[in-house]
Amino acid sequence: MENKDTRWKLRFENYLTTLANFDQIIPADGSTSEFEKYALVQRFEFAFDLSWKVMQDYLKYVGYFDIRGPRPCIMQMAQDGLIDPFVWEELLNARNESGDSFDDSKNQIYFDKIVNDFLPVLREFKDKMVAKQ
Which end of the chain is more exposed for a tag (fewer CB within 10 A), N or C? Predict the structure, then answer.
């Protein structure tokens, strides 16, 4: 049986890799093609999904065995003072909405929001979890 300490750390390593991949998608000169916008939105969805699964595994590691799903994980992490629940609720809503978007103008909005608002939150979460290792 897998060590419960190892599970959240392994998933967290995948999360770190996903965050590092954002730098490959975001061009330094600020110009982005439609393909890059779609790629960034999909990378955000993947990063968000990994983030709440890291939360779930971490919560299990510290003794919360019955917390499952993104919203309960977000609420417990917020109660434990590790994240801001309002910001993470916004990320959850954006993740749920972005998966249904095939509209280029919406993708531009998501792209801007991800780059300017959500990516810093995902990186802040990374820093908090690095401190927990």
Answer: N
pLDDT at 104: 67
Q: Which of 15, 45, 43, 3 is nearest to 130 (CA)?
A: 15
Q: Which domains does the chain have, with CATH numbers?
A: 4-132 (1.20.120.330)
Q: pTM for the full model?
A: 0.89
**Mean confidence (pLDDT) of the chain:** 88
pLDDT digits (tens, 9 = 90+) for 11-40: 999 999 999 988 777 767 767 777 777 888
Q: Alpha helices, DSSP H only, in 62-118?
A: 70-79, 85-98, 104-113
